[in-house]
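Risk register update: the risk of archive-format incompatibility is retired. Evidence:
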Amino acid sequence: MKRGYHHGNLRQALVDAALRLITELGPQGFTLSEAAKAADVTPAAVYRHFAGRDDLLAEVARQGYDIFGALMEFAYNDGKPSALAAFEATGRAYLAFARKYPGHYQAMFESGLSLNAYPDLAMVAGRARQVLEQAAMRLAENIPPAKRPPPSMFSAHIWAMSHGVVELFTRGKPGAQSPFAAEELLETGIGIYLRGLGLLPPDH
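Archived output:
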């Protein structure tokens, strides 16, 4: 071990190094040895904390989902001031997270990790999804049950729409140009989609 890390903060130092490498090279663009070098520790020290790169990526993703879930809960704000406003706020929170935490975002959604292989990661990811599903459920309360779409279905559609806006228009990739702001694209798309489901009146 090259630095005087304590047992606890060496693990976090490796996570922080991985975040820098992910942002620069992508989640599959570096080795565990390169993460060790970036953290200024020996490869042997890394293996005391992580069995391989995927284990390290899983911890980065877990921390990302923890932040993401907290941001989603804050944006949802217990459904205030209205179910629609809270639902739209969760979409904007998705965009804000992707911009502010690009390394976490890529580890969460672009690393190819199986959530089933990491129970702690699956748990925090599920908690983040539940916020959007709760928002969807509240939004659908005024629809007759027989006509009510499953909240898990249309919250998943909104998640996919949010992800698409991030990937196409907010990541600074070549060609990622739009005459509209990402937030405007997402808000308009959400409105059109919800109106099509009958969750918004036509003149809203």
